């Protein structure tokens, strides 16, 4: 790499985005009505299992954001990189957007379920 060149985008730089997308899917697989303590279910510990699933999904989402931030800072935003910093900003932005969309989907679904309970 010559002075002024942007470091190449390697294949493993995509791992944080893939993990973040997996977390987004995991968050949206959960039926939020299972968190209602008055809901009936076939198993007694459904509420606890859903909470653990959501915690693990959120942990994956925040870890993917941290991994993307780490790669961006170490490779693209470091002082020895005199080339373009765009891939670093794009990597951070991509992971941030995936995280926010997952949280937004969860929040919208929870608001919708609250409205359906209030209309009863």
Average pLDDT: 82
Cα gyration radius (Å): 19 Å
Q: Helix/strand-derived class?
A: mainly alpha
Instruction: Tell me about the largest β-sheet.
Output: none
Please give the number of β-strands. 0
Strand content: under 5%
Helix count equals 3
Distance between the termini: 65 Å
Task: Give the uncertain stretches in residue-range form.
Answer: none
What is the global morphology?
elongated
User: What kind of assembly state do the chains in view correspond to?
Assistant: single chain
Instruction: Give the % helix.
Output: 55-70%
Would you list the SSEs in sequence order as H and E?
HHH
SSE topology sketch:
Elements: H1 15-28, H2 46-76, H3 86-118
Report on the architecture of this protein.
It is a single chain. Helices cover 65% and strands 0% of the residues. The protein has 120 residues and is mainly alpha-helical. The longest helix has 33 residues, at 86-118. The protein is elongated.
């Amino acid at each position: 790499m010559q002075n002024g060149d942007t470091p190449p985008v390697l294949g493993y730089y995509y791992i944080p985005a893939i993990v973040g997308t997996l977390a987004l899917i995991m968050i949206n697989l959960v039926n939020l009505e299972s968190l209602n303590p008055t809901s009936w279910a076939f198993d007694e510990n459904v509420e606890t299992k859903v909470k653990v699933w959501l915690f693990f999904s959120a942990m994956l989402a925040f870890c993917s954001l941290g991994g993307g931030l780490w790669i961006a800072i170490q490779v693209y935003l470091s002082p020895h990189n005199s080339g373009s910093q765009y891939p670093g900003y794009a990597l951070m932005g991509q992971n941030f957007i995936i995280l926010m969309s997952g949280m937004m989907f969860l929040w919208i679904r929870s608001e919708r379920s609250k409205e359906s309970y209030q209309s009863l």
